[in-house]
User: Which sequence fits this backbone?
């Protein structure tokens, strides 16, 4: 089997990294190296992914935390497995509360938007089912960085400072534990400055020693419960004790000879698949033409209109994944793409802040893993004495009583974080993913088309300039996006804005595997402090 279309070099781009023994790629070099160390100690790709993920909660705390959620796609023994470790709303979280208190939307900061964190349970579940090393060994690099400290890297330092400015401006005693933990000198740490968190280290050690039981049914759960009772939040130890991550069947579409896989709802990966299902029926002459970009943008707009209308907790969806991914519905939506930009609206199918990492070992195991607490530093709530920064995924809920994603007790909200994976003819090609809110399914579409449609290697697929749809006919393009194409898109009716930097265009990673030789080909995001650790 020949995967040349995904592995061959692309002229004038940075070079892809090749290796055979194993590979880990993520947006922070220390975390990538932590995962590689697990491979060298005899662990597998799953151990490497957990070690990297845990390390990222320390070395990239603005984007993810122990108090966040995770999703994973795991290829092992010739099969792809999905893990949904997003947590539901607490039992006390309900629409009436927000209506009675006059909220138009769920606030981003404070105790109210916090849902049950799934990340510690994800590590434990992955380790128990597929890992080779003890969880205590796998979390040790993260514990050491928290105890001894690490020098803050450039991109992370930038967003750490932004988080500090936002949270300190709230001027509320509720956020004092955050300030003591992440700004102990009254400011964000400088780039290159050492930062350490003994509380974080102690919490990670407790999770490691108890296989995450302390977080959901032990001492950490008691501390979380006490904090929310004292400060008027919804979360309780009973919510934590009731939580278990879900093993799910991944969903996919067939695109140009390859199968592209995502986690099913409540994640927004379905949006990427809807868009690809539309695009596979269209013709493309070349990558950098106005027609190519126009068709991609229109397909993404249509997919988002459906996703934002229908995606929520699967138990509350009023259409099925199969209906949204049917060829008949794809053809119906495809027919709406004309020469001018459209205003996207949801169709009517017939009834019938985040980190990403990829890991692979020399045995063929591969992992696509993403975790987040949403936004820079999530809710801004740190449980005193633990270093645990809590997510604010409750902001994903609607307060419209008629919307499928309306807030309700024990419900999973529309979720932005999505890992991706590609297979061909029943064999793994490999993991890919991009972090950063609503850009994620848009970037998935762009990367898949770069790699499969236009034959770019992993690094080139990531390097290529990106666009992102904002709303209605409005799109934003990166500073390096070709100006002549931006002008041509404007003539087609798109409202085009050029960003001053690439901060909101996502940070992604890719690993492809050649099944004949076992050679791994990795790319890492040029928009971050990324690294490909390999041997």
Assistant:
């Amino acid at each position: 089997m020949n995967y040349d279309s995904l592995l061959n070099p692309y002229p004038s781009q940075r070079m892809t990294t090749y290796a055979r023994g194993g590979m880990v790629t993520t947006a922070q070099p220390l975390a990538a190296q932590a995962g590689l160390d697990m491979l060298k100690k005899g662990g597998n790709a799953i151990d490497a992914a957990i070690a990297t993920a845990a390390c990222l909660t320390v070395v990239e705390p603005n984007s993810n935390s122990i108090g966040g959620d995770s999703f994973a796609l795991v290829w092992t023994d010739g099969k792809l497995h999905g893990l949904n470790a997003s947590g539901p709303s607490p039992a006390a979280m309900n629409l009436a509360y927000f209506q009675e208190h006059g909220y138009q939307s769920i606030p981003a900061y404070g105790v109210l938007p916090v849902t049950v964190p799934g990340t510690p349970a994800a590590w434990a579940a992955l380790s128990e089912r597929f890992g080779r090393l003890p969880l205590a060994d796998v979390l040790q690099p993260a514990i050491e960085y928290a105890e001894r400290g690490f020098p803050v890297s450039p991109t992370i330092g930038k967003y750490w400072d932004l988080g500090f400015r936002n949270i300190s401006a709230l001027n509320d005693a509720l956020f004092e534990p955050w300030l003591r933990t992440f700004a102990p000198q009254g400011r964000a740490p400088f780039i290159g400055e050492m930062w350490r968190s003994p509380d974080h280290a102690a919490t990670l050690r407790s999770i490691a020693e108890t296989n995450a039981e302390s977080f959901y049914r032990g001492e950490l759960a008691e501390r979380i419960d006490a904090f929310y009772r004292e400060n008027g939040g919804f979360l309780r130890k009973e919510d934590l004790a009731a939580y278990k991550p879900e093993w799910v069947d991944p969903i996919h579409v067939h695109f140009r000879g390859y199968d592209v896989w995502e986690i099913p709802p409540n994640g927004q990966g379905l949006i990427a698949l809807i868009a690809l299902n539309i695009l596979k029926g269209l013709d493309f002459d070349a990558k950098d033409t106005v027609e190519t970009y126009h068709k991609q943008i229109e397909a993404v707009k249509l997919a988002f209109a459906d996703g934002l209308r229908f995606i929520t907790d699967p138990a509350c969806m009023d259409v099925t994944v199969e209906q949204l991914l049917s060829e008949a519905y794809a053809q119906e939506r495809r027919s709406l793409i004309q020469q001018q930009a459209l205003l996207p609206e949801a169709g009517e199918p017939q009834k019938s802040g985040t980190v990403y990492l990829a890991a692979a070992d020399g045995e063929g195991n591969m992992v696509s893993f993403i975790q987040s607490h949403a936004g820079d530093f999530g809710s801004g709530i740190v449980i005193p004495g633990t270093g645990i920064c809590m997510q604010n995924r409750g902001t994903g809920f609607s307060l419209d009583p008629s919307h499928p994603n309306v807030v309700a007790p024990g419900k999973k909200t529309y979720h932005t974080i999505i890992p991706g994976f590609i297979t061909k003819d029943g064999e793994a090609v490999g993991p890919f993913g991009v972090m950063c809110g609503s850009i994620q399914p848009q970037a998935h579409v762009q990367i898949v088309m770069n790699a499969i449609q236009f034959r770019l290697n992993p690094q080139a697929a990531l390097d290529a300039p990106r666009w992102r749809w904002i709303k209605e006919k409005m799109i934003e393009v990166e500073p390096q996006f070709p100006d002549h194409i931006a002008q041509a898109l404007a003539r087609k009716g798109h409202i085009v804005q050029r960003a001053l930097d690439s901060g909101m265009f996502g940070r992604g990673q890719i690993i492809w595997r050649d099944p004949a030789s076992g050679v791994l080909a990795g790319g890492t995001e040029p928009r971050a402090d990324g690294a490909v650790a390999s041997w």
In short: The longest helix spans residues 290-310. The two ends are 24 Å apart (CA to CA). Confidence is low (pLDDT under 50) at residues 1-5, 7-12.
